[in-house]
Design a protein that fits this description.
This protein has a 7-stranded mixed β-sheet, with helices on both faces. It has 7 helices and 11 strands. Helix 5 packs across helix 6. Helix content is 35%, strand content 24%. The protein starts with a strand and ends in a 6-residue tail after the last helix. The protein is α/β, with parallel strands linked by helices.
Length: 235
Protein backbone atom coordinates (compact mmCIF):
# COMPACT_ATOMS: atom_id res chain seq x y z
CA UNK A 1 0.00 0.00 0.00
CA UNK A 2 1.34 3.42 -0.98
CA UNK A 3 2.50 5.74 1.79
CA UNK A 4 0.78 9.10 1.28
CA UNK A 5 1.78 12.24 3.15
CA UNK A 6 0.51 15.80 2.93
CA UNK A 7 2.23 19.15 3.22
CA UNK A 8 0.09 22.14 4.21
CA UNK A 9 2.04 25.40 3.74
CA UNK A 10 0.70 28.10 6.08
CA UNK A 11 3.70 30.39 6.50
CA UNK A 12 2.40 33.38 4.56
CA UNK A 13 2.46 36.86 6.05
CA UNK A 14 -1.11 37.66 5.01
CA UNK A 15 -0.33 41.31 4.19
CA UNK A 16 -3.22 41.64 1.72
CA UNK A 17 -5.68 40.70 4.45
CA UNK A 18 -4.78 43.87 6.37
CA UNK A 19 -5.58 42.43 9.81
CA UNK A 20 -3.54 42.04 12.97
CA UNK A 21 -3.94 38.26 13.01
CA UNK A 22 -2.43 36.24 10.18
CA UNK A 23 -5.18 34.96 7.92
CA UNK A 24 -4.38 31.28 8.53
CA UNK A 25 -5.30 31.74 12.20
CA UNK A 26 -8.38 33.94 11.73
CA UNK A 27 -11.54 32.42 13.17
CA UNK A 28 -14.09 31.35 10.58
CA UNK A 29 -17.32 30.20 12.22
CA UNK A 30 -15.31 29.69 15.40
CA UNK A 31 -12.58 27.56 13.81
CA UNK A 32 -9.12 28.76 12.73
CA UNK A 33 -9.00 29.02 8.94
CA UNK A 34 -6.06 26.61 8.75
CA UNK A 35 -8.07 24.07 10.72
CA UNK A 36 -10.52 23.48 7.88
CA UNK A 37 -7.89 22.08 5.52
CA UNK A 38 -6.24 20.05 8.28
CA UNK A 39 -9.57 18.58 9.38
CA UNK A 40 -10.36 17.41 5.85
CA UNK A 41 -6.92 15.78 5.62
CA UNK A 42 -7.40 14.25 9.07
CA UNK A 43 -10.65 12.54 8.10
CA UNK A 44 -9.43 11.38 4.68
CA UNK A 45 -8.47 7.75 4.18
CA UNK A 46 -6.17 8.91 1.36
CA UNK A 47 -3.65 10.60 3.71
CA UNK A 48 -1.62 8.91 6.46
CA UNK A 49 0.41 11.84 7.81
CA UNK A 50 0.45 15.62 7.62
CA UNK A 51 3.27 18.15 7.88
CA UNK A 52 2.23 21.75 8.59
CA UNK A 53 4.62 24.52 7.58
CA UNK A 54 4.29 27.79 9.53
CA UNK A 55 6.10 31.07 9.98
CA UNK A 56 9.23 31.34 12.14
CA UNK A 57 8.37 30.99 15.81
CA UNK A 58 4.76 29.94 15.19
CA UNK A 59 5.21 26.21 15.76
CA UNK A 60 3.95 26.14 19.35
CA UNK A 61 1.11 28.54 18.64
CA UNK A 62 -0.11 26.44 15.71
CA UNK A 63 0.10 23.31 17.83
CA UNK A 64 -1.97 24.82 20.63
CA UNK A 65 -4.43 27.01 18.70
CA UNK A 66 -5.14 24.64 15.82
CA UNK A 67 -3.85 21.07 16.21
CA UNK A 68 -4.74 20.51 19.87
CA UNK A 69 -7.91 22.59 19.67
CA UNK A 70 -9.28 20.36 16.90
CA UNK A 71 -7.88 17.11 18.29
CA UNK A 72 -5.87 16.28 15.17
CA UNK A 73 -3.87 13.06 15.28
CA UNK A 74 -2.25 12.83 11.84
CA UNK A 75 0.09 15.80 12.32
CA UNK A 76 3.57 14.29 12.06
CA UNK A 77 5.43 17.61 12.32
CA UNK A 78 5.02 21.37 12.43
CA UNK A 79 8.05 22.93 10.77
CA UNK A 80 9.30 26.40 9.98
CA UNK A 81 8.76 27.78 6.50
CA UNK A 82 11.04 29.84 4.31
CA UNK A 83 10.89 33.24 2.68
CA UNK A 84 8.93 31.90 -0.30
CA UNK A 85 6.15 29.32 -0.58
CA UNK A 86 8.52 27.17 -2.61
CA UNK A 87 11.00 27.12 0.28
CA UNK A 88 8.25 26.18 2.70
CA UNK A 89 7.09 23.23 0.62
CA UNK A 90 10.68 21.99 0.36
CA UNK A 91 11.06 22.13 4.15
CA UNK A 92 7.86 20.12 4.37
CA UNK A 93 9.21 17.53 1.95
CA UNK A 94 12.25 17.01 4.16
CA UNK A 95 10.01 16.49 7.21
CA UNK A 96 7.88 13.72 5.67
CA UNK A 97 8.60 10.05 6.35
CA UNK A 98 11.47 8.84 4.14
CA UNK A 99 9.31 6.06 2.70
CA UNK A 100 6.64 8.45 1.40
CA UNK A 101 5.40 7.44 -2.07
CA UNK A 102 2.88 10.20 -2.85
CA UNK A 103 2.87 13.73 -1.45
CA UNK A 104 -0.14 16.03 -1.42
CA UNK A 105 0.45 19.79 -1.28
CA UNK A 106 -2.46 21.98 -0.24
CA UNK A 107 -2.65 25.66 0.65
CA UNK A 108 -3.56 26.16 4.29
CA UNK A 109 -5.94 28.99 3.38
CA UNK A 110 -8.10 26.95 0.97
CA UNK A 111 -10.73 25.58 3.37
CA UNK A 112 -13.35 24.19 0.99
CA UNK A 113 -11.95 21.27 -1.02
CA UNK A 114 -13.76 17.95 -0.94
CA UNK A 115 -12.77 14.43 0.08
CA UNK A 116 -13.58 13.30 -3.47
CA UNK A 117 -11.28 15.91 -5.00
CA UNK A 118 -8.46 14.89 -2.67
CA UNK A 119 -8.89 11.19 -3.49
CA UNK A 120 -9.09 11.87 -7.24
CA UNK A 121 -5.92 13.97 -7.24
CA UNK A 122 -4.03 11.31 -5.29
CA UNK A 123 -5.22 8.56 -7.66
CA UNK A 124 -4.16 10.60 -10.68
CA UNK A 125 -0.70 11.22 -9.19
CA UNK A 126 -0.28 7.50 -8.61
CA UNK A 127 -1.08 6.87 -12.27
CA UNK A 128 0.55 9.85 -14.01
CA UNK A 129 3.15 11.12 -11.53
CA UNK A 130 1.63 14.56 -10.93
CA UNK A 131 -1.88 16.01 -10.75
CA UNK A 132 -3.73 19.15 -9.76
CA UNK A 133 -7.34 20.11 -9.37
CA UNK A 134 -8.50 23.08 -11.44
CA UNK A 135 -11.65 24.67 -12.78
CA UNK A 136 -12.36 25.98 -16.30
CA UNK A 137 -11.96 29.73 -16.68
CA UNK A 138 -15.35 31.43 -16.93
CA UNK A 139 -13.96 34.66 -18.38
CA UNK A 140 -11.83 35.28 -21.44
CA UNK A 141 -8.18 35.34 -20.34
CA UNK A 142 -5.68 37.76 -21.88
CA UNK A 143 -1.90 37.46 -21.75
CA UNK A 144 -0.51 40.94 -21.16
CA UNK A 145 2.91 42.37 -21.91
CA UNK A 146 5.11 44.39 -19.55
CA UNK A 147 3.32 47.62 -20.56
CA UNK A 148 -0.14 46.15 -19.87
CA UNK A 149 -1.15 45.81 -23.48
CA UNK A 150 -2.80 42.59 -24.63
CA UNK A 151 -0.18 40.30 -26.12
CA UNK A 152 -2.47 37.36 -26.81
CA UNK A 153 -5.94 36.01 -26.11
CA UNK A 154 -5.84 32.52 -24.64
CA UNK A 155 -8.43 29.97 -25.86
CA UNK A 156 -11.05 29.83 -23.12
CA UNK A 157 -11.95 26.19 -23.79
CA UNK A 158 -8.39 25.21 -22.86
CA UNK A 159 -7.79 27.66 -20.00
CA UNK A 160 -7.89 26.36 -16.42
CA UNK A 161 -7.63 28.10 -13.06
CA UNK A 162 -5.32 25.96 -10.98
CA UNK A 163 -6.10 25.18 -7.34
CA UNK A 164 -4.82 22.84 -4.65
CA UNK A 165 -4.71 20.06 -3.55
CA UNK A 166 -1.98 18.92 -5.90
CA UNK A 167 -0.31 15.52 -5.64
CA UNK A 168 2.99 14.08 -6.86
CA UNK A 169 5.22 11.08 -6.67
CA UNK A 170 7.57 12.09 -3.88
CA UNK A 171 10.78 11.44 -5.83
CA UNK A 172 9.52 13.49 -8.78
CA UNK A 173 8.63 16.50 -6.65
CA UNK A 174 11.80 16.61 -4.58
CA UNK A 175 13.87 16.24 -7.75
CA UNK A 176 12.00 19.19 -9.27
CA UNK A 177 12.59 21.29 -6.14
CA UNK A 178 16.31 20.52 -6.06
CA UNK A 179 16.68 21.29 -9.77
CA UNK A 180 14.92 24.62 -9.21
CA UNK A 181 17.37 25.45 -6.42
CA UNK A 182 20.29 24.72 -8.75
CA UNK A 183 18.77 26.87 -11.52
CA UNK A 184 17.54 29.69 -9.23
CA UNK A 185 14.02 29.11 -10.52
CA UNK A 186 11.15 30.57 -8.49
CA UNK A 187 7.56 29.67 -9.36
CA UNK A 188 4.14 30.05 -7.73
CA UNK A 189 3.13 26.40 -7.44
CA UNK A 190 4.63 22.93 -7.48
CA UNK A 191 3.15 21.84 -10.80
CA UNK A 192 5.25 24.53 -12.49
CA UNK A 193 8.38 22.95 -10.97
CA UNK A 194 7.42 19.55 -12.36
CA UNK A 195 6.71 21.12 -15.75
CA UNK A 196 10.14 22.77 -15.67
CA UNK A 197 11.87 19.36 -15.69
CA UNK A 198 9.65 17.97 -18.42
CA UNK A 199 7.02 16.28 -16.25
CA UNK A 200 3.36 16.07 -17.23
CA UNK A 201 0.60 17.17 -14.86
CA UNK A 202 -2.90 15.68 -15.06
CA UNK A 203 -5.83 18.07 -14.54
CA UNK A 204 -8.63 16.91 -12.25
CA UNK A 205 -11.91 18.83 -12.14
CA UNK A 206 -12.16 20.93 -8.99
CA UNK A 207 -14.96 23.11 -7.65
CA UNK A 208 -15.52 26.86 -7.72
CA UNK A 209 -16.07 26.82 -3.94
CA UNK A 210 -12.42 25.87 -3.43
CA UNK A 211 -11.37 29.49 -3.00
CA UNK A 212 -8.12 30.82 -1.60
CA UNK A 213 -8.66 33.27 1.26
CA UNK A 214 -6.49 36.29 0.45
CA UNK A 215 -8.55 39.45 1.07
CA UNK A 216 -11.34 40.49 3.48
CA UNK A 217 -13.81 40.04 0.61
CA UNK A 218 -12.79 36.38 0.39
CA UNK A 219 -13.73 35.97 4.04
CA UNK A 220 -17.24 37.22 3.24
CA UNK A 221 -17.53 34.62 0.48
CA UNK A 222 -16.23 31.93 2.85
CA UNK A 223 -18.86 32.79 5.45
CA UNK A 224 -21.55 32.53 2.78
CA UNK A 225 -20.28 29.09 1.76
CA UNK A 226 -20.38 27.89 5.36
CA UNK A 227 -23.87 29.26 5.84
CA UNK A 228 -25.07 27.53 2.67
CA UNK A 229 -23.49 24.24 3.77
CA UNK A 230 -25.29 24.32 7.13
CA UNK A 231 -24.03 23.13 10.50
CA UNK A 232 -21.58 20.25 10.04
CA UNK A 233 -22.06 20.29 6.29
CA UNK A 234 -18.39 20.85 5.50
CA UNK A 235 -17.12 17.68 7.18
Amino acid sequence: MAKIGAIVPAAGSGLRMGMGTKKQYLALAGIPLLGYALKIMETSSAVQEIVVVVGPGEEDYCCDAVVKKLGLNKIAAIVQGGSERQDSVYNGLLALSPNTDIVVVHDGVRPFFSQDTLADVVAAAQRYGAATCAVPAKDTVKLGDEDRFVARTLPRDRTWLVQTPQAFRYKLLITAHRRAQEDNLLVTDDTALVESIGGQVKIIMGTYENIKITTPEDLDVARAIIEAAGQGGLW
